[in-house]
Amino acid sequence: MGKKEVGTTITQHILSKQRENSEATGAFTILLNELVVAAKVISREVNKAGLVDILGATGTINVQNEEVQKLDLFANRIIIERLQHIGQLCCMCSEENADIIEIPARYPKGNYVVVFDPLDGSSNIDVNISIGTIFGIYKRPDCAPETEPLLGDILQPGMKQVAAGYFIYGSSTVMIYTTGNGSGVHGFTLYPSVGEFLLSHEDIKIPERGKIYSVNEGNYTYWDEKTRAMVDYFKTKDADTGRPYTSRYVGSLVADFHRNLLKGGIFMYPADKKDPKKPSGKLRLMVEANPLAFVVREAGGYASDGNGPILEIDPKELHQRTPLYIGSKKDVELAEAFISGKKNELCA
Length: 348
Ligand code: AHM
Ligand code: MG
Hints:
By secondary structure, this protein is an alpha+beta fold. Helix content is 30%, strand content 22%.
């Protein structure tokens, strides 16, 4: 038998999973496929960012009070356009939109809800550091598709996701996704000349303990004593526990998370006192923390806000922020023990 001309495509993979589930209607497959199309278009634009006059800020400020760059707006528009017409969604939530994104009346509606960060880490676009698209998918709770979308359709705890993942636009474009429930976390790499995502990382498992800690230590001065003690712990020499860990932080959540998922380690964005309006740190629960928490749990890792699982938080607002500790299970449990004040139980 010769080598296969082209490996397993993402479409083949999703369809084979659909066949394993006797209740599957194909709606979810259509939805994921459209997301993949959107990501291919975004990937193409990201790749030519240095070539065309698309860099720089538009001067617009998003709902988080941050400067929005042109590619963020482009990615946001593409995802909304690709998903709104497929008839499977009741509404969407994006980091770039202050409110629920409703499905225009001219399109049929469905029972899925998609939350996304269209282009995470976008301050890194013009310096060629990897950026990404993060997504989470939920089922609408108990409502007929014809009824108006409600905030409660989106404000569900992360553990209710039926799928989550991300696309990373880096040295190659990679899609990572899981449908939870033991289905595994799978990675696909975009083969540009064929235009398909091909299975490249099957059933990813994150090491139980890593050797990397990722945090913006420039915020040290804004952290409380527990947070400082925790980061100091990872930096302190101790042969028995493999410390000091090495530090890796590029400031693009998808990139930092992806590296740690494959190699093991912990990513942290603790609460800080930098901005009184953001006492819970910088990252958003719905569009950043929850999808990655769902992925990491399926890969055998853990995500915590310092006091408990991210996936169990009952969200109160679309753009709620949360401290985030995510990655290898043992490392995150250790960080949680420091932050919650139970450290002696774990680091005796
Ligand atoms: P963004 O969604 O506006 O791009 O912000 C989120 C990004 C994450 O990708 C990254 O982990 C974090 O902000 C970096 O923040 P900082 O520069 O404060 O370290
Ligand atoms: Mg983001």
